[in-house]
Amino acid sequence: MDAKRRLLGMTLKELKDVALEFSLPAYASQQIADWLYKKRVKSISDMTNISASKRLLLEKVYEVGLIAPSESMKSVDGTIKYLFPVAAGRFVEAVYIPDEDRSTLCVSSQIGCKMNCSFCMTGRQGFNGNLTSSDILNQIQAIPEFDSLTNIVFMGMGEPLDNVDELFKALEILTSSYGYGWSPKRITVSTIGVAKGLERFLAESDCHLAVSMHTPFPSERLSIMPAEKAFPIKEVIDKIKQHDFTHQRRVSFEYIMFDGLNDDLKHAEGVAKLVAGLSCRINLIRFHAIPDSPLKSSNTANMNAFRDALTKKGIVCTIRSSRGEDIFAACGMLSTAKKEQKL
Q: What is the per-residue pLDDT across 262-276, written as a single tens digit (0 to 9) for each?
């Protein structure tokens, strides 16, 4: 028997096609969307303003498709890492991060990753497929903390702009009136700078953008981020500078601090030159160690000096607090452990 198709993750246009397929009135697509994204039902049988006979027909082909996490780990600081089953017996992670009046969920966009950054555990998994919009939204809707969420960041496993079609479907549902109705200002999409995806994102989305920089020097970036060859950081920034990031959207640069590699004042000066003329912020991030890596996190003194050097040049720079260090903090650690258990 063929697997049922998931309604979760379908746009209103796709739901209109479903309604047409079963000879439902045109307004039924909006009704289904309400049940999926506002009432958040778990079963088609709960969609009580659709006739019982039509619901039975729908259930032969479709299901809501909400899938509970298979595992979770909670940190002493309140951070929770969730593991979700996806295609072909694989797993992806989502991380819930409560912080005073903010509750952020970090979601994944791919199973593994093609980018192979040397400091990333997810990259070691290789690329095992794109997540569907259903897989993406399931990470959000299936957690118990859904109603407390204030922000969503696409900074989990994978490169979001390498899965741009499914990403945009998820963003549409998250921000549209028929979907969750979130403001784009509550959503941030991270990227290493995939050219075609970035062009589309800059042209079509009002969500915030976060770019993985990690060093301002091309040869050094190439040594830890092979994607620098295809998507040079200077070209990425030049493209961003052609768009307005002063009001509706914010652009930030993620900068993991590695001891003795990229954490001195020469690098701070390089960052300042690279982003000159661009309204942005720099987020300095402590490196979470991964197995068999020679890389170590920069010390607090160097991070503070780096931040202060950028601040003196008028660049907003913050040091991100480390979270979840006692629960496989680095992205991809828990899913890799689960994958190895199954081998």
A: 999 999 999 999 999
Write out the residue limits of the CATH 3.20.20.70 domain(s) in the chain.
71-342
Domain boundaries 71-342, CATH class: alpha beta
Contact 189, 209 (CB under 8 A): yes
d(CA 206, CA 16): 25
Catalytic residue among 59, 63, 93, 235: 93
User: For 254, phi and psi rounded to 5 degrees?
Assistant: -85, 130
Interval 84-105: pLDDT, tens: 999 878 999 999 999 989 999 9
Marked catalytic residue, from 106, 280, 317, 331: 331
pTM value is 0.94
Residue 325's pLDDT band (cuts 50, 70, 90): confident
Give catalytic status of residue 113 as yes or no. Answer: no
> Is 120 in the active site?
no
Which residues, in sequence order, are CB contacts of 69 under 8 Å at separation 6+? Answer: 82, 83, 84, 94, 142, 143
In CATH, what number does 5-63 get? Answer: 1.10.150.530
